[in-house]
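Changelog excerpt

This revision adds worked examples to the README so contributors can see how folded entries look when concatenated. The first example is reproduced verbatim below.
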Amino acid sequence: MVTEHGIKFGVHLITKHFGKIVAKVCEKLFSHGPLTLDQLVRYTDFTKDQVRNSLLVLVQHNCAQAFVSAPQDDDDDADRLRVRTQYLVLFDNIIHRLRFPKFLDIVSRKLDEECVKLLVGLLRDGRLTLKQMVDRESQGKGKCFVMHIAASTLVEKRKASKFLKELWKDNYLHKKTVPVTGGRPSNICMWKVNKPLLWKYVLDEMYHAALNLSLRMT
């Protein structure tokens, strides 16, 4: 269970990273629990587009999760047939954003600088395809929250696939194949950072440091 000040801190981080509108949507998810798009519109007094875009940001960065809820006992037949998507805020993943520099430090000790650059982009922009990670020109110079990685962190396209596989092989990344509908059927690979594993490494280093300190003091 998230405490009162934990919620305030989480909302503060979202405000700092994504702005006040996204933070307001996040705050309502904290205070009310899982909500639908229409419920969030009602609670926030924002337009549907504002709420939808805020949810896209939160889901893209793995700070919220969408799921289809089961029918309620008091639903009529029409409601039972309707797909009801709700959104759940992920507090631990929001707090993980504070740990990104340490995550990068851990990876940099084992892999080269180009792998770290790709990891920077994935940490900053959430789930991305390979094309999104190497496309410099079509992203409006970094203004698109979903698809850009700043030019300073980009690597050459022909090398990006190799570096992604290195990160994936060492379990620093998750890979998910997503079917694409419309036109010719195809699949794309989405990549995201394995934050729980990196956090495990961070904790292990903290415990190691604490053990060494305790041994010195005895």
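The second example, added in the same revision:
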Amino acid sequence: MGERHHNPDWRHRLIPRLSLYPTRQSFVAARVRCAYARLGNHRTRFYHDCVRRDSGEFDFGARLGAGQPIVFSLARLAADSQMTMAELPTSILFADVGAAATKVGLLGLVAGQYRMIGATRTPTTVGAPYHDAMVGVHQAIMQLQALTGRRLLDGQGMLIKPARADGDGADAFTAVTSATMPLRTVVIGLSRDYSVTGAMRAVNSTYAQVEHTIAVDEESGRWGTTAQDGRAGGPSDAVEKLAMLMPDVIVMVGGIDGGAVTPLLEMASIVAAVGAAMDSTRRPLVVFAGNRDARGQVAERIGSLMEMRVVDNVLPALDRVNPGPLQTELENIYRQQQVEKIPGLDKLAAWAPRGVMTSADAFTRVAEYLARKYQLRVLALDLGAGATTLIHTNGAQLKRAILEEWSIGYGLEQLVDAVGMEKIMRWLPASFEPSQVHAQLLNQAIHPTATPTRWHDLTALNAAGRELLSKVTQLWQDDPTLTLMDSDLVLLTGAPIARGSKPSALLLMLLDALDVRGIFSVAADTMGLAPALGAVAGINAEAAAQALESDCLVTWGTVFVPELAPRSGEPVVLNVQVQPARGGRLEVEVKYGSLELIPLGEGEKAQVELRGTGNVRWGKNGTIAGVKNNVFKREVQGGTAGLLIDARGRPLPFMENLERQRDKAQEWMWEAGA
């Protein structure tokens, strides 16, 4: 494997940021005339020192250190959106109907660049008392009209499209949503270590909640009474349990292609028994993703009772896992059974010719875009009120996990019940009382749209966030194809960022919960609009990319997480030298088990040298550009948090005594500036 050319200086902003932060009345707003006044003649660029070509292309080869230059072409972006440059909409209205909040934004051309004209946020109205997603969308658009001075709706409340000469209306509309219940899913397979594990990779990548899993190889033949003569017999204990769960979907997996069929037929009889035990109006849909030779006979036993769909085997051979077709089918079912049934979504979809995307799919598009265009390994995280999405992609491969059972909003109570207060309290200083923290978390679960303002409340929520992230990463433990250890860019969006926690506090939360190592940049979607811009990219990729860069993403800084093996008796493991471009020099000794935060503001650069006194390794394979003989030396970029060095070692050293661990958590907060 060749040297991995990490580029921590992954982006630089030349356009001054607009004042796009939440107020009491609105989530974000900026008038066009203010944008013109502030922009002047500045131009948006994705890298600060790329070379502008006459053709309108930017050459990033020198920045990334790749063998061949990477060309970022506006024309190519337009091709990605399947439109010619002349057909591209220049003003785009978009909506994000989330579990707790509905956000609406307007993109437009300002001084030749696509900018966020304004955005507003209102509570989602899918539930009581409105039961209509469009109510919240209309409320947000009305606020947006007042803030921008543009009329977007006509007298009947319909979208003005296309945009008029006077600036009213919009050329296009897109929408995303995560305001649904997950697919309640049961997975039944022949072997837990093989077929069930393969199916879980697909299920965990979609908006599905696994209610129960059954591996026949663990059931000791208890199915005998339900599989006589190919007919469903009297329900066993397991059949009764599955019928009581009333799942939306039963996923059947097992056997390699060309393998034995009989065990799958017995399993099909079990599933048929479940259907027979349920009311005909509540029977689940069955997806068969097992041995292709068994499809016909399995369909004969199930098809008369329940709708059945067939996809390619998740385990076509013992050495090959194929979760993609099952994942795609589950996503289709989710859209049909859950998304399309959101109250009022039919009216929203009528405005969006390309349909309403799920937030996870749209956010995945953003992560893949960054990875492919800039040859980065991107870790993207969306901590939503209703679901948590974790994406890791290197441009060629992609892994995604979606957890809906627990979240940082509606799912907080379930999270607390699952992990227990002791695990949450280990991240909090001694001044936090368990009963008060428990009450705060339950209150946030009841009122997920509430925005805490006290440091105490934000810190308690971030402690719960650590356990939530830990649970999400557990969904990937069985998949070696991509790991979290090596990332070049960590991209964050979601509720904790919108709530106003300090960047350093959220950086510490990530480092505590995720096994990310090496050297990487961290950027935050401060407006919470990255998923919505993923949908915008489908009709105008240029607009989505420029708005994401100019108005949404803020660099928090560069993080260093070496793998350390300290020498006995030597507490100092790293000697650090920092020479900012503005002048000066800083030398720091970093002790094993500590964190060191070095101020380096957004847009600032510095030459950094980290020299280990013991055995220091950077990254999973030690293949990071700028590292020679275990010494890192290169120019890096700062951010709103600065440079953070984590020398605590991995896995994190937890104290067995809870009180001592909480004292250690306080030390970590002080050291990280949290």
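Reviewer comment on example two: Residues 25 and 143 are 9 Å apart (CA to CA). Residues 1-82, 220-235 have pLDDT under 50 and may be disordered.
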